[in-house]
Structures are given as structure tokens and as C-alpha cells.
Amino acid sequence: MKTYQVITPASTYPVSLTEAKSHLKVDTTADDTYITSIIKAATQLSEEYTNRFFIDTEIEQYASSFVELKTLFKSKVSAITNVKYYDNNNTLQVLSATVYNTQLNYEPSQIQLAENQSFPSITKRNDAVRAKYTVGYGSSASDVPEIIKQAILLTIGNFYQNRNSVVIGRIATELPMNVKWLLDTYKVQIVGWQ
Description:
- The structure is a single chain.
- By secondary structure, the protein is α+β, with helices and mostly antiparallel strands.
- The protein folds into two domains: 84 residues, Hypothetical protein yqbg, CATH 1.10.3230; 79 residues, no CATH class.
- 28% of the residues lie in helices and 21% in strands.
- It has a five-stranded antiparallel β-sheet with strand order 1-2-7-3-4.
- The radius of gyration is 20 Å and the shape is elongated.
């Protein structure tokens, strides 16, 4: 079983309230709270669709074996803080960085066994192995590619115009096709999960 948890969330969003209001042609503050909430929703949907975090986010991924941990969940990985494991005595240990190599330029990024090394024995549990790492394009909105920002703005526009749960002839909670087309450029395909 593989899963992850956000340790330190992004401190900002790729699109600001000012940018969203400009895109929506809104010049009052009456809807600021609502627009802020749809910025968050549009960002989260886009991140899930692309299998990425856009602004630097620290996450910890859990797996039941080193083999399961090989492929990291989210991209673009900028740094691996540590890899830990529960040894045969069920004690949490830090894996020496000399035991593994990282392929951070791959998407999805990978942790691989270093040459002439072997992974230690681990206890049997769902979270026997964990890796803490940072993903994202950078720490500010200016680091996020413009195509992604445009996709988020289009989603914000869709949500703002379609506020009801039922819209005749449209599905308001789904990413629009033009947004998917833009995000497909950055979508990380995860194949062969074990």
C-alpha cells in the first residue's frame, strides 16, 4: 500500500486574487471570499489532474516496501529530505544516502538502489518505508508555468459562472476540455503501480 501526507503545504497559490478578479472582470470586493475559495479548488483540481504540486510543498510518502517507494507520487521533485524505514525491531531508522540514488530529472522522479548496495531488512507494516521530499516549481507563483496558470484561470471562470450544482447541459464540477488540453502538457503519467 502506498500513500502520502502533506507535511508543509504551499504558502501561496499560482493565481492571486487580483489576477483572478482581473480575469473575471470583477471590480468589487463583494465576491472576494468566494473567488478565493474557487482559486483553491481550481488549483487543487489542476494539481490532482496533473499529479503535481505547483508551489513548493513538502510531502511524506509511505510504502510497505522499498520497491513500492521507487516511484515518487508527485512531481517536480526538487529535493529529497530523507528516506526512513522501520527495521526488524520495528524501530524507525534513517536510510543512509549512500544506499540509494535519486533520479529527480525523471517525471515521476525515482529512488533507486545505488550500485553495490542493498536495502536493509524491514518490518512488515503498511508504512514500513517513507520518503520526505519537496515538490513544486518553486516557492512563488512566478515559478509556475504560464500554461498552468491559464488553465487555473479558465477553471476559476467556469466555477464563477456556474455556481449551481446542476447546470442544464453542462457539468460544472468537471474540468473543462480546454483546461484538460492545457494541463495535458504537464500531466505526469504514472504507469505500472504495484
